[in-house]
Amino acid sequence: MLLASSLATPAIGTVFWTTLIFFILFFLLWKFAWGPIMKAVKSREDMIRNALDSAEKAREEMKVLQADNETVLRKAREERDKIIRDARLSTERMLAEAKEKSQSEADAMVKRAKELIEREKNTAIAEVKREVAGLAIEVASKVVSQTLKNDAEQQKLIERYLKEIETTSN
Fold this sequence. Notes:
By secondary structure, the protein is mostly helical. The chain has one domain. It is 95% helix and 0% strand. The chain contains 3 helices and no strands. The longest helix is centred in the middle third of the chain and has 136 residues. It starts with a helix and ends with a helix. The mean pLDDT is 85.
């Protein structure tokens, strides 16, 4: 029992020295450990706060960059669509011009061919007329030379044929 009673009621000397050691230890901890611990906690708190602020700023910058990227992408799509539309229009215009040019060239070739055919036809007709006239004169001269005996009859016949040719020519 003696041991149980001394633990329940400590001696004054023990209380005094325990309290004195507690305050000395508290003073030493407050003087040398509490300040660095509080500085470390404060610096850690500041570092965490700065990291959170930086993360928030980065998040805001990412939102701005994302909006800028969407704007740039939208503009790029619009520019691409415009370029494609212009290319299609240019291609259609070039095809229409080429078709029109080829049509006009074909029309010109047909016109030149018709003119050439007409000239060749007129040349051929004139040549046939000359040939027929030559043959007719040759035949007529042979017939006339045999049928007409004197020069006066031949002269009358020639004048009559000349008048007929003039009237048919006009």
